[in-house]
Amino acid sequence: MTKIAFIFPGQGSQQVGMGQEFVQNSEESKAYYDQADKVLQFELSKLMLNGPAEELTLTYNAQPALLTTGVMVAKKLMDAGIQPDYTAGHSLGEYGSLVISGAISFEDAVQIVHKRGLYMNEAVPAGQGAMAAILGLAAEPLKDVCDKVTNEGDPVQLANLNCPGQIVISGTKVGVEKACVAAKEAGAKRAIPLVVSGPFHSELMRGASEKLGEELTNVQLADPQIPVVGNVWAQELKDVPSIQQELVEQVYSPVQWENSVKYMIEQGVSIFIECGPGKVLSGLVKKIDRSVKTYCVYDEASFNEVVEAIGGELIG
């Protein structure tokens, strides 16, 4: 039996016009955008559909924007008869997977990821943190590089273990710069600085995670009805305590994306559907295992392609 995973992208995949065709053509889809506006008490949907891009990209706007579009797309697929057997999201995307699994309401998730963005934005003053993608160096030697730089007084660590040959590091600006030089000396093919607003998934985000943890105590969570594979341990989040721990630790811990995808494949998943704008996760999945099928759903044409290919029956 074919098993399907819905996967949700993280920051960087947002773009002006995201979900526009769905919103224009379906009142059910538009309702998600309207609900996000109502929860946040500002017109997030206007930013999503019309920009400006600079404002949409701000972490406290990008996070609820990606969540809203991802959940809207996933629910549309489910209404068309395509049901996920597993779900996972990259960093922020994990909240989308929790919504469709029934572990958290859409309204609560929108509010929480907006606050998550605010806390992450406040955690480190602008210009003091950085991230970079390291290509062509394995995790173990790269970790040795980061540990050495950190021990010399400039914190830097592995942040996203995305796929073979692509790992993102995060930390202080100086730490990341030093680690990039040392990584190339250790054999990395390239070290690419990323345009980000902070050192996400590093120890410098602990303050943000503590504030998020306090917020989560006020949110009603439930055991997932669809298996959710978490970023921190690349294992299923089976109950409320594990979800709470995951969401707090995830802010300052590495995203184990490669291992998460491998886990789902080991459980029999052979089709991955990326819900939301962009094709980043689908590209990473293919680099992890070329034998699986990947689809990206971001507009009506891609939605119809998936429904036709997988054999779901379009409803409404």
Compact overview of the structure:
The chain is α/β, with parallel strands linked by helices and 316 residues long. The protein has helices at 20-25, 27-40, 44-50, 53-56, 59-79, 94-100, 106-123, 139-151, 173-185, 206-216, 240-249, 257-266, 280-288, 300-310; strands spanning 3-8, 86-89, 129-135, 156-163, 166-172, 190-193, 269-275, 293-297.
Strand order of the largest sheet: 2-1-7-8
> Roughly what fraction of the amino acids lie in strands?
15-25%
Show unreliable segments.
312-316
How is the main sheet built?
A: 4 strands, parallel
Structural commentary:
49% of the residues lie in helices and 15% in strands. It has 316 residues and is of the alpha/beta class. It is globular, with a radius of gyration of 19 Å. The protein has helices at residues 20-25, 27-40, 44-50, 53-56, 59-79, 94-100, 106-123, 139-151, 173-185, 206-216, 240-249, 257-266, 280-288, 300-310; strands spanning 3-8, 86-89, 129-135, 156-163, 166-172, 190-193, 269-275, 293-297. The model is unreliable at 312-316 (pLDDT under 50). The protein has 14 helices and 8 strands. Strands 2-1-7-8 form a 4-stranded parallel sheet, with helices on both faces. Strands 4-5-3-6 form a 4-stranded antiparallel sheet. Strand 4 (156-163) and strand 5 (166-172) form a beta hairpin. This is Malonyl CoA-acyl carrier protein transacylase. Residues 7-298 form the Malonyl-CoA:ACP transacylase (MAT) domain. Its EC number is 2.3.1.39. It catalyses: holo-[ACP] + malonyl-CoA = malonyl-[ACP] + CoA. Belongs to the fabD family.
